[in-house]
Design a protein that fits this description.
The complex is a heterodimer of chains A (114) and B (115). Chain A contains no helices and eleven strands. With 114 residues, chain A is mostly beta strands. In chain A, strands 2, 4, 5, 6, 9, 10 and 11 form a seven-stranded mixed beta sheet that branches. Chain A has a four-stranded antiparallel beta sheet with strand order 1-3-8-7, with no helix packed on it. The termini of chain A are far apart. With 115 residues, chain B is mostly beta strands. Chain B is 0% helix and 52% strand. Chain B contains no helices and eleven strands. In chain B, β6 and β7 form a beta hairpin. The radius of gyration of chain B is 14 Å and the shape is globular. The model of chain B has no long low-confidence stretch (mean pLDDT 93). Classes of the chains: A mainly beta (114), B mainly beta (115).
């Protein structure tokens, strides 16, 4: 079990640029989550998918953020255009979706927007 | 408005002693609670959970206690070991809707266990 795989581990970009974060969930897991961690707000849920369908995107900060899950083994979180306040660690997590199944997190992408 | 609060940002404990990490919540609809542990440069990893129908769940050195009337839960680690040094996150969800999607996390408590 390779776990949840996120890429890149670190991303440094300039304000206004497009940023794409990638996630490969654990094989067989049918729920996928994107979280953002900041000092001020802690871990916040941005969006989650069930069977590749977005279920709740109420945590997505604004239209600059978008997420897709084209198939069961891949998801992207895109920020366009990026702003310095988007600097944070972005975590992807997956679960089997049954009632008591915990989330399995990737190691995160540390995003710095200058 | 924080629905899950961990009021102690840090805790220092001597090796072999008990570590007690606390968590309070405000939403009475929460019925499932979890603790995650996070090492630097890694994602959080699941540690232990408890359903609201129970008041205690134990797994080895880790025990979670739930006091629903006080909307309070705690994680006890006995005995504490240096490898337990990490940030511990409390999380809660209202699962009766059938989904664990909206898992609300506290801001974490950094535990340092000194040899």
């Amino acid at each position: 079990d390779a776990g949840v795989i996120q890429s890149p581990r670190h991303e440094v970009t300039e304000m206004g640029q497009e940023v794409t974060l990638r996630c490969k969930p654990i094989s067989g897991h049918n729920s996928l989550f994107w979280y953002r961690q900041t000092m001020m707000r802690g871990l916040e849920l941005l969006i989650y998918f069930n069977n590749n369908v977005p279920i709740d995107d109420s945590g997505m900060p604004e239209d600059r953020f978008s997420a897709k899950m084209p198939n069961a083994s891949f998801s992207t979180l895109k920020i366009q255009p990026s702003e310095p306040r988007d600097s944070a660690v972005y975590f992807c997590a997956s679960s089997s979706g049954t009632g008591n199944s915990p989330l399995h997190f990737g190691n995160g992408t540390r995003l710095t927007v200058t | 408005d924080q629905q899950v609060k961990q009021n102690s940002p840090s805790l220092s404990v001597q090796e072999g002693r008990i570590s007690i990490l606390n968590c309070d919540y405000t939403n009475s609809m929460f019925d499932y609670f979890l603790w995650y542990k996070k090492y630097p440069a890694e994602g959080p990893t699941f540690l232990i959970s408890i359903s609201s129908i129970k008041d205690k769940n134990e797994d080895g050195r880790f025990t979670v206690f739930l006091n629903k009337s006080a909307k309070h839960l705690s994680l006890h680690i006995v005995p504490s070991q240096p490898g337990d040094s990490a940030v511990y996150f409390c999380a809660a969800s209202a699962r009766h809707g059938g989904s664990q999607g909206n898992l609300i996390f506290g801001k974490g408590t950094k535990l340092s266990v000194k040899p």
